[in-house]
Predict the 3D structure of the following.
Amino acid sequence: MTYILGFDGGGTKTECVLMDSSDHVLARTFAGPSNPTRIGVEAAVRAVQEAANLCLREAQLDLSAIGAIGAGLAGTANSEMREHTRVALEKTFPGVRLTLLTDLEAALAAAGEGQVIVLVAGTGSAAIGRNKRNEIVRSGGWGPLSSDQGSAFDVGRRAIAAATKSHTEMGAPSTLEQQILVQLGCSSWPEVQQRAEAAPDQVYPRIFPVIAAAADAGDAAVRGILLSAVAELSSLVKEVADRLGFHRTEFKLAKTGGMFGRSTFFDEQFDTAATRILPHARLGGLRISPAEAAALAARC
């Protein structure tokens, strides 16, 4: 029997699934981030390898049993970065057939057939869609310097800035500041600021659970930040919908990423905004996980 490994890698984590020849998922594991644009090719491939080793160990298999690998990795849309990543993966998994996708391509495949837009809202943010003519359009997802509006990185950056201003004006830590300190394992607010400057990916996205909880508890300032994120994410989807011609035609809008399912306030506000802007959209989730979709792409 030939087995396949599928990966979905982003700025926060890497998911790996092991599939058999009947497309059954035999194991599912997670490792750290694997976006080569954000952390470098070497570190990204190391996370992919770690997730693979965990999967193989759980299934009690050796790498020699793997016939193909499908990797959907964020940060590989750039052709040069994609090639560097491909070469590194082929060295890590010698003799195994490799199919390399972007995380957006894997997410679109995971949404199923038909007219669809997938919104990815996690460490980064992006939207990708396909119409009935099989035309594919994307928006966003080029990294924090030029895009990622409304992402967990963006929200965390705004929250840190707001908390820093409050800290300066009040002279005493707010409840939100204290919760951020606990989440990050920091002892002081200057330490948070130093870490955010030195390693922003290790700070801004990681505090989203705190922000989500504060919003559901009624924190007005945090709710304002999340409402801005809702507007930004809705704009990404609308741009894709406009370019695909989804003006008077029904389509599926699939939501995925770590920002969804954490805050009732955020989820409700996004659904309301998306339905208002795009009345023909049917909101839902992905049919399968992007890691599974990447594995199935490698099988073909």
User: Anything to note?
Assistant: Residues 105 and 248 are 25 Å apart (CA to CA). The beta strands are 3-9, 14-19, 25-31, 66-73, 97-102, 116-121, 125-130, 136-140, 251-256, 281-284. The chain has a mean pLDDT of 94. The domain at 3-108+289-299 is CATH 3.30.420.40 (Nucleotidyltransferase; domain 5).
